[in-house]
């Protein structure tokens, strides 16, 4: 997403803003790289967030939750005014979930459990532990839906991805980018599949969706976002966005406006 690769000033808003893990975060808030001895779930009940690690960037709009296992260095950036919910997962429960950072879809039951865990202090002894068990059970049965943008290690491939990070709307073909990077189209296509486990087209589409989520959260129109992020027309953007995110960009933006009133 925009600026996830760049440092930014730290706003004065603390995070989280309540002792039990909930609070509103302003647009653009950036939490510098850090790690935790325990696992961490971060849910944007409204807004969107990006979690960046050395393995790439994961993005979670309002209907998804990010998971970071213990020990993974990571940074967060928030897009739109974000209702963020933070849930710490004890080490002895982390083995129930995947061993790498990821994003999961949020079912109605999972959403209510996350909100209940972070809306208020524990009143009855053991209540939070029981709710956390529900969260773990739901996540263990939920397939990953990672808006994951992996980052390459190969210098030739990194030269290409750096060009696209600098200008996601760039329409150059892989062959054209390869000439700039000093590698053949065939070599780069192979590297995308072997190192990043996706095609060039899929990687660039995911990068553009990351930027589109941020643009929409910032109040830009669907048409403006489509043009800035490299789609030739709004219809093709809407199709790609809906396939990856699970809702149309218009609905995503409408939900943002509704949730932040």
Automatic annotation (TrEMBL):
SUPFAM superfamilies per record: Homeodomain-like, RmlC-like cupins
Domain HTH araC/xylS-type residue range list: 158-255
SMART domains: HTH_ARAC (SM00342)
Alphabetic keyword roster: DNA-binding, Repressor, Transcription, Transcription regulation
GO MF terms held by the record: DNA-binding transcription factor activity; sequence-specific DNA binding
Cross-referenced InterPro entries: AraC-bd, Homeodomain-like_sf, HTH_AraC, RmlC-like_jellyroll, RmlC_Cupin_sf
Pfam families: AraC_binding (PF02311), HTH_18 (PF12833)
Coiled coil: none
Protein name from the UniProt record: HTH-type transcriptional regulator RipA
């Amino acid at each position: 997403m925009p600026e996830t690769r760049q440092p930014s000033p730290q706003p004065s808003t603390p995070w989280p803003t309540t002792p039990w893990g909930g609070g509103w975060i302003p647009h653009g808030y950036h939490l510098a790289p850090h790690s935790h001895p325990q696992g961490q779930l971060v849910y944007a009940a409204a807004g969107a967030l990006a979690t960046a690690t050395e393995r790439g960037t994961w993005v979670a709009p309002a209907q998804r939750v990010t998971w970071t296992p213990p020990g993974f260095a990571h940074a967060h950036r928030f897009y739109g005014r974000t209702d963020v919910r933070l849930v710490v997962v004890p080490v002895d429960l982390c083995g129930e979930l995947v061993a790498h950072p990821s994003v999961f879809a949020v079912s109605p039951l999972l959403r209510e459990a996350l909100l209940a865990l972070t809306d208020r202090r524990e009143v009855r002894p053991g209540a939070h532990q029981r709710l956390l068990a529900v969260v773990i059970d739901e996540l263990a049965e939920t397939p990953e839906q990672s808006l994951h943008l992996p980052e390459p290690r190969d210098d030739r491939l990194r030269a290409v991805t750096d060009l696209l990070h600098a200008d996601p709307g760039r329409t150059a073909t892989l062959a054209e980018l390869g000439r700039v990077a000093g590698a053949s189209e065939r070599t780069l296509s192979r590297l995308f599949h072997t190192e990043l486990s996706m095609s060039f087209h899929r990687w660039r589409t995911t990068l553009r969706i990351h930027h589109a989520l941020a643009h929409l959260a910032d109040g830009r129109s669907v048409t403006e976002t489509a043009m800035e992020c490299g789609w030739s027309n709004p219809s093709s953007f809407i199709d790609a966005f809906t396939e990856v995110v699970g809702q149309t960009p218009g609905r995503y933006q409408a939900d943002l406006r509704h949730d932040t009133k």
